[in-house]
Structures are given as structure tokens and as C-alpha cells.
Amino acid sequence: MERIVEICCGSYEDALNAYHGGAKRIELNSALHLGGLTPTLASLKLTKKNTDLKVITMIRPRGAGFCYNDIEFEVMKEDARYMLENQADGIAFGCLNQDGTINEKQTKEMIDIIKEYQGEVVFHRAFDCVDNPYTSIELLIDLGVDRILTSGLKPKAMEGKALIKDLQTKYGSQIEILAGSGMNASNAKEMMDDTGIYQVHSSCKDWVNDPTTQTHEVSYAYAPFPHENDYDVVSKELVEKIVESIK
After folding, report:
1. CA nearest 57: which of 144, 120, 148?
2. Which domains does the chain have, with CATH numbers?
3. pTM above the 0.85 mark?
């Protein structure tokens, strides 16, 4: 199986950097500092127009967790359709109940929309908030999910490597396991070699200064020191390094 690095992008510019760095697939978002929200249609359309990347678009209407009310879920379904109608290759989403179980009704509705457009179904790191990873992955398989993005229920994927390996061993023939959080050129190959997975998800993050972030007594900073006047971008050079590292 060909080894794959998926790059987590927060903009069209990020997508271009990932593309020129040698990536073949991206997850396209906005607001990565909130964990990634639904991207703009413009960023999707420009990415598909000017690259040959496979693009999985995030569908997430807000920050915080993954328990969505009916109003939020209506927006998610509409956004999914708009993305798929504009050449998104798949959708990443995750819907949970308050007790940490998979929201089966919402998940099935989203899958039905994605499959209507022959898109790839990705259940994102909402999986890392589930109450039981084994019953959850079995339900997702039954519902028709193609891939899950997970850090093994730990803050960083290397810390959750044992669970990732167990999920791959038990379920890897039925669903794709994509390891994400803290993946970089120093550990991507180790993760693949040790677990048997063939895909990792990386942000390849760098920082760019914007001197207008804080002026007078007004601040729009979101990053901690020493990046309080910066915004995050995908680094072409870091993409090149991680892509090369898994060969």
C-alpha cells in the first residue's frame, strides 16, 4: 500500500504550499487555531482549479466539541453539499452525543449526502472524544465510513500509538486509520513501521508575522508567546521533509 501524508491546511495559500511541497492529499479547513472549521468555497475552488490535490473538506460549524444541535446540523449538511458540488473529493466531520457516543442519526445523514456525490467519508478527531473506541469504530464501519483520523485518544498520536496499532490490527482491513496530531518528519515513518498504518496527517506549521495584530490597546492575537503577533501557515519545506521521510 502506498504511504500517504495528508496535510492539514487552513487556506488556499496553505494548499499551494502543501502541493508544491509534494503532498497528494489535503484536509482543507479555516480557523485551524480552533481545531479547524469549514473552509470557504473560494479556497476549495481555487485549490481544485490550480492543483491536482485530492481535497477533503472539513465540515465543522464552530469550535469546542462535537455535539451539534439541529440548527448547527442543518448548516453542516448544506455546507457538505456545497463543497461536494464544487469538487471536494470527500468530507471530514464528526458528530457525538453528550455521553461521548457516536450520534448515529446525524452521522448516517452526513454519510448519505457524501455518498450521493461519491465522496470519501472521513470521521475526524471527534473520534478521540468517544467513550469506547472499539464500539465506536465498529459502528462507523457499519455505517460506511471510509477513514478515521485519530491520535489514539491521546493529545499526540505517538502517545496513542498502542491503540492506533490495535485498531489497525483489528479493523484495518475494513476502514482506513489515519494518525494525526504531532506527526512530523521525525516520527511519521516510525508511526507507520510500528503500527502498520500507511497514512499520517500533519500540519507542517510555521509562523508569519503580521505587525497589525496588536496596536494601541487592541489585540487580535491568538497564538501564545513568542508568536503573539503571528499567524500560522503550512511550510512547503516541512511538507517536503515529511513526504521524503516516509519513503
Report:
1. 120
2. 4-245 (3.20.20.380)
3. yes
